[in-house]
Amino acid sequence: MIYYIAFVLIGIGLYGIVSQKNLFKQLVSLTIIDTAVNIFIVALGYLHGAEAPVYSSVTPLANFVDPLPQALVLTAIVISVGTLAVAAMLLVHIHEEYGSVDAEEIRAAKEVIE
Amino acid sequence: MRRIWAILISVVFLHFFIGTYFPTLPEFGNIDMYRRVSFDYISKSTTTSYQPVEYKKSKGLEDGSANVVTSIVVNYRSFDTLGEVTVLFAAALGVGILANIKKRRIEFEEHKVLSVATGMIFPLILVFGTYVFVHGHLTPGGGFPGGTVIALGFLLLMLAKNEFKVTDAAKHTEQVAGSGYVLVGLIGMAVVGVFLANFLPTGTIGNLFSAGVVPIVYTLIGFKVGAELSSLVSDMREGDKV
Amino acid sequence: MSKLVEFFMNLELIDWIFYLVGGLMVVFSIFAVEAKRIFDSVLALSAVSLLSVLLFIVLKAPDVAITEAAVGSGLASAVMIFALFRMKAGEKK
Fold first, then answer.
1. What is the pLDDT of residues C16-36, one digit of tens each?
2. What topology does the record note for this protein and the membrane (chain A) (predicted)?
């Protein structure tokens, strides 16, 4: 079921953050974790045989899925893109300062400076 | 060596969560709606007693929008949306400060097909984005995807024509729309006594002019998010203001 | 063996869609983490976002699907690719 898919994706994102040396790849793994957590939260509110939570002429009875997780995930998606933009600009500044975006090369360049 | 540590950490995390957390979750698709607070949000009766809601027939309810997710985001939990608008503003401010790098701006090659096609499609994209955030209380969508579609239209214009700049008018629009949201909250406080209360009359469910303050707030949010995201992308493209 | 056959017989349509789309998402995200060039990583991330829109539609959440489609495939990729262009523009000098 879908809880397993969401947690396997979180596991892959965690593997990406720990094992990759390039800072940009770590940012991509963080975004994968964000997407997987959003899927998990929306899947917590599903009801078999129910409809999307919008009153219309085709749903006379109010048999809806849970709308509260969807409202929370709406906020989370927009905030994650704002965080992504700030992190990408920080990486551009790091590249200008040290010459590369690789964690080992930055550590070597910092020891040369000090 | 690093990969082995990474796989080990990942497998331990997965085993811990799947082993001890999954049994406490409800079974997928079998939730008990009557014990959750969303039941009050769906039947629009948090303070009064439960009455069934009918499309295009019920009048004068607590909250008159047909889209239940909109009524949660803008009416019942409107303070969280104010916080989200603030976080987006802080992110755009951060990018605007950090984009001050002394490099030339990114230049694209102009392609004839893209220029002609953009001239035909750009007004349609703007109309579609406006439709999505004006009808936020009737159909799925709302202010945030509508504003993003408008910003994507401006991104297309930026790619098609090399000399296009997003001027300071976008920043002025963002300021006015953001302050407008707080102003609506303060007017609600003056009229009813609670910050961000719904002070306009809520009409019949399903009409365009219904749900009180909700279409006004979503229009303001649509303008703010559209102007903010287009100026964010434009700041990343331009370099230092030499 | 018979338990496996019984497992496949009891799946409904929604379970088939979950496992197919979920399997594709896992494959694309492993590719996004292990690619050699960073540009391929960004493209695979955009594909993961687009497949998650399919899952949101099947879970009956149209608001979230429209928001994720507009934000995940358009704006996140544009922001990352502009940042990559800025980093490469400094190296050539």
1. 888 999 999 999 999 999 999
2. Multi-pass membrane protein
Q: Do A25 and C33 touch (CB under 8 A)?
A: yes
Domain, as residue range, for C60: 1-91
What b-and-e string marks burial along B66-94, b requiring 16 or more CB atoms within 10 Å of the CB?
bbbbbbbbbbbbbeebbebbeebbebbeb
Residue of B nearest to C91 (CA): B103
Q: Does C83 touch chain B (CB under 8 A)?
A: yes
Domain range annotation of chain B: 1-34, 68-237
| 8 Å CB contact of C26 and A9 | yes
CA distance C31 to chain A (A): 10
Say yes or no to pLDDT of A73 above 70: yes
Domain around A56: 1-113
Complex ipTM: 0.89
C23 touches chain B (CB under 8 A): no
For chain B, say whether A83 makes contact (Cβ under 8 Å).
yes
In degrees and rounded to multiples of 5, residue A47 shows phi and psi of -130, 130
Domain count, chain A: 1
